[in-house]
């Protein structure tokens, strides 16, 4: 059964994706678990469009939007931006992509994100790719990421870990109870992690 995405474009001119059937995979895992890295690989092999909620928020902040200062403050504190903002950015990016298969990376990060996306788009994810990685390894990766991000400092990293445990893990548990989580050992080298990811995307049940 298909899902109708009634996405609204920048000018608010209504349905852009029309009645396209869309497939959404949520890509979750702690900060530094390798979500962005693996999404780039999945895009090359499986024809998905990668939408990183964090990247969309950073772009919105830099574009001088009225929400710019709020977004910057939330990111600096490792807090989760209200869903109203993030869901709109995701909807717009989906509509503009022209694709019908999406990896939504770093979203939903809390129950509010999850419920708002479902309510507004009516979309249920095909499955959840969960990158499981110990905190020490994630910390090491974030401190070495070198992308000039304002939140990759030890103070903010600790806050992001706390938010992950308190707000994001319960969302993963929610989907796990529905049998939708595909858990990957993300502590291994990039190529090995991708082998496990490929297996998920080529398993018949999940061939989407
Ligand atoms: N399997 C891995 N082993 C070692 N380093 C990794 C691995 N996956 C990603 N990295 C590195 O760790 C950092 C965080 O990865 P990234 O994909 O940005 O994670 P996330 O989007 O989950 O925060 C980057 O510098 C990336 O190059
Ligand atoms: N759904 C989301 C995703 C990110 N964010 C914000 O953006 C920050 C960076 O998210 P990200 O996904 O780019 O970070 P990583 O997990 O990739 O390191 C988060 O710590 C939040 O402050 C958000 O508010 N809501
Ligand atoms: Mg990322």
UniProtKB/TrEMBL annotation:
Supply the Gene3D superfamilies for this chain: P-loop containing nucleotide triphosphate hydrolases (3.40.50.300)
> What cellular component terms from Gene Ontology apply here?
cytoplasm; nucleus
Main function? Catalyzes the phosphorylation of pyrimidine nucleoside monophosphates at the expense of ATP. Plays an important role in de novo pyrimidine nucleotide biosynthesis. Has preference for UMP and CMP as phosphate acceptors.
EC category name: transferase
The domain section of the record reads: Consists of three domains, a large central CORE domain and two small peripheral domains, NMPbind and LID, which undergo movements during catalysis. The LID domain closes over the site of phosphoryl transfer upon ATP binding. Assembling and dissambling the active center during each catalytic cycle provides an effective means to prevent ATP hydrolysis.
- Where does the chain bind a ribonucleoside 5'-phosphate? 58, 79-81, 106-109, 149, 160
Q: Kindly list the positions annotated as binding ATP.
A: 32-37, 145, 188
Query: Which protein, by its recorded name, is this?
Result: UMP-CMP kinase
Quaternary structure annotation from Swiss-Prot or TrEMBL: Monomer.
Q: Report the cofactor remark.
A: Binds 1 Mg(2+) ion per monomer.
Q: Which residues form a coiled coil?
A: none
- What keyword terms does UniProt attach to this protein? ATP-binding, Cytoplasm, Kinase, Nucleotide-binding, Nucleus, Pyrimidine biosynthesis, Transferase
**Main localization (coarse):** cytoplasm
**UniProt GO molecular function:** ATP binding; nucleobase-containing compound kinase activity; phosphotransferase activity, phosphate group as acceptor
Q: Which reaction does it catalyse?
A: UMP + ATP = UDP + ADP; CMP + ATP = CDP + ADP; dCMP + ATP = dCDP + ADP
Q: Provide a GO biological process annotation.
A: nucleoside monophosphate metabolic process
PANTHER family (alphabetical): NUCLEOTIDE KINASE (PTHR23359)
């Amino acid at each position: 059964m298909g899902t109708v995405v009634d996405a609204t474009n920048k000018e608010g001119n209504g349905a852009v994706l029309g009645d396209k059937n869309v497939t959404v995979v949520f890509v979750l895992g702690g900060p530094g678990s390798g979500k962005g890295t693996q999404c780039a690989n999945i895009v090359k092999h499986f024809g998905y469009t990668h939408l990183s909620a964090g990247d969309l928020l950073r772009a919105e902040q830099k574009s001088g939007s009225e929400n710019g200062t709020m977004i910057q403050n939330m990111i600096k504190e490792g807090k989760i931006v209200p869903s109203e903002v993030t869901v709109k950015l995701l909807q717009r990016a989906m509509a503009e992509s022209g694709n019908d298969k999406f990896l939504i990376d770093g979203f939903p990060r809390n129950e509010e994100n999850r419920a708002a996306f479902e309510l507004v788009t009516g979309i249920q994810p095909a499955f959840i790719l969960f990158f499981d990685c110990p905190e020490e390894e994630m910390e090491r990766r974030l401190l070495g990421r070198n992308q000039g991000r304002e939140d990759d400092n030890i103070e903010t990293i600790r806050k992001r870990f706390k938010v992950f445990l308190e707000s994001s893990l319960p969302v993963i548990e929610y989907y796990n109870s529905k049998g939708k989580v595909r858990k990957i050992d993300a502590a291994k080298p990039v190529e090995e992690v991708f082998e496990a990811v490929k297996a998920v995307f080529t398993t018949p049940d999940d061939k989407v």
